[in-house]
Amino acid sequence: MRTLIAVAYPNETQASEERVKFLKMQKSYLVDLEDAVVVIRKQDGKVKLHQLFNLTATGALSGGFWGTLIGLIFLNPLLGLVVGAGAGAVGGALSDVGINDDFMKQLGEKLKPGSSALFVLVDSEITDKVLAELRGSGGEIIQSSLSHEDESRLQAALSAAQNAANKG
Questions:
Q1: What UniProt keywords apply to this chain's record, in alphabetical order (predicted)?
Q2: How far apart are CA 168 and CA 166, in angstroms?
Q3: Is CB count within 10 Å lower at the N or C end of the chain?
């Protein structure tokens, strides 16, 4: 079951730090991460998306390889490389896998200037071990496809350290 979670953070760097936690959890087989995008709303109000995968570069590399191969067949590898890389880059730029970019930009517009959000798409359960890893990061869930109960558990884990710090 695919689950989307978007968590807002009060500064521009924290969402990137939390994405690193998710990548580590994926290496430990705690989550099956399909996509993780950091959205930053700059002080000037502009929204920037930092994708996990650069499809334009991947497309250019793949297109360059196939273009060179086809160019070798037709005795013009340089032309094949240029045409293939260009076509691959365009194809990669037009591809959208994972979380919809327009959706993330719309939610990014609602962030306060100087803040960030982490959008993750997982194909696994949010287990107690995952909640323990995220405990105390201080984010606020702004969108999710979790059940109300699971969303409440996740928000409680995110807020755990903040509540303790506010009481003490």
A1: Membrane, Transmembrane, Transmembrane helix
A2: 6
A3: C
Question: What tens digit of pLDDT does each residue of 65-124 get?
Answer: 666 656 666 666 666 656 655 655 555 544 445 678 888 889 889 999 999 999 988 887
Q: Any residues with CB less than 8 A from the CB of 102 and at least 6 apart, and which?
A: none
The torsion defined by the Cα of 29, 30, 34 and 40, in degrees rounded to 10, comes to -130
Q: How far apart are CA 87 and CA 60, in angstroms?
A: 7
Q: How far is CA 4 from CA 8, 85, 123, in A?
A: 13, 33, 9
Note the pTM of the prediction, 2 decimals.
0.68
Question: Strand (E) positions, the chain?
Answer: 3-9, 33-41, 47-50, 115-122, 140-144
